[in-house]
């Protein structure tokens, strides 16, 4: 049955930030299943239509105005400017549950209520982070619209943000989380640890609907960025924004046998933080590690397919729930994957799909061993296409459509 769906997400296409890809994938393929998808998003994401959407409503957002003194940081984070991006804003330690509660929520909430008066939505989906976006769903739920709250990251569980400094802030944040979780018609999380946490703490049957890849994504032409005489281990996208760092990897490179180092290149493509840029530019590893810039998406996908193997860097045991968006692009590239973070959901997915192996995210010696293994005995990639197709957005949209139908009855 065709449903009218309002999808609420601060980030959406055309921004190159990974959160926007889930919006793009769900919108495109839910529409192909016959659903009418309206996207409510932030003007900070850019302009234009989204494939499959019957309407895209872009509200004002203070982070896209002159009131945001960190606009240059935001542009660099999205790969839209050559500068390095900086650390998160200190406001993240002040505003509950997040900065978007001030910058975007007032605009989004007002527009959503106005839209609901003139449109009959069968369901609203709110996708976080930012967590404050869920309050739009709560407001529409009070007006009779079934509501799916989606968690791409944990909230109080393994949160990627810095902890609040005061107990009263933490308690208030936990209260807002409970308010959202207990009022939503259904909960969705993108990794098993987040699902398990929601079930354990709230006794609510959260659903697992992972991130994925779009089989119709445009892949660019080859640019000759890799050395055909060396084993190319490629990392695309951001690191510091998710709390990970290449520092242990760089230290591991220092410990490589010179014969292995001569046969290996580690190539980073994507925006860098100031610290990451300094680490990668270290003359001590310049013969192995290099940066090729912040590529557009088709070029990044081409680089993944041209690589000999692909690299995921996580925080390790501090955030076991991590399965970064790039991981699913890597699966589609059909290349061996090395995950630094053997305790993480990313490692489990890769190993279950027979697409590579994992090592410690923090032990330089263990990382050096893994790098040597890649060069001297690269793992073979499994041929089970079904193990990968379940992470494609056409399949993810099919599962989501079943949930939409369930809550809309």
CA radius of gyration: 21 Å
Given helix and strand content, the structural type is alpha/beta
Order of helices and strands: EHEEHHHEHEHEHEEHHEHEHEHEHEHHH
Distance between the termini: 10 Å
Topology, please?
Layout: E1 4-8, H1 19-32, E2 36-42, E3 53-59, H2 71-77, H3 100-103, H4 105-118, E4 123-128, H5 134-142, E5 147-151, H6 167-183, E6 186-189, H7 192-202, E7 207-208, E8 231-236, H8 247-254, H9 258-261, E9 264-269, H10 274-280, E10 289-291, H11 297-306, E11 309-313, H12 325-333, E12 337-340, H13 345-352, E13 356-359, H14 364-376, H15 386-389, H16 393-408
Parallel strand pairs: 1-2, 1-4, 2-3, 4-5, 5-6, 6-7, 8-9, 8-11, 9-10, 11-12, 12-13
Helix pairs in contact: 1-16, 4-5, 8-14
Please describe what this structure looks like:
By secondary structure, the chain is an alpha/beta fold. It has 2 domains: 4-212 and 392-408, Rossmann fold, CATH 3.40.50.2000; 231-387, Rossmann fold (3-Layer(aba) Sandwich). The chain is 38% helix and 16% strand. The strands form 2 sheets. A 7-stranded parallel sheet has the order 3-2-1-4-5-6-7, with helices on both faces. Strand 9 (264-269), helix 10 (274-280) and strand 10 form a beta-alpha-beta unit. The longest helix has 17 residues, at 167-183. 49% of the residues are buried.
Write a brief caption for the model.
The chain has 409 residues and is an alpha/beta fold. The protein has two domains: 4-212 and 392-408, Rossmann fold (3-Layer(aba) Sandwich); 231-387, 3-Layer(aba) Sandwich (Rossmann fold). The protein is built from 16 helices and 13 strands.
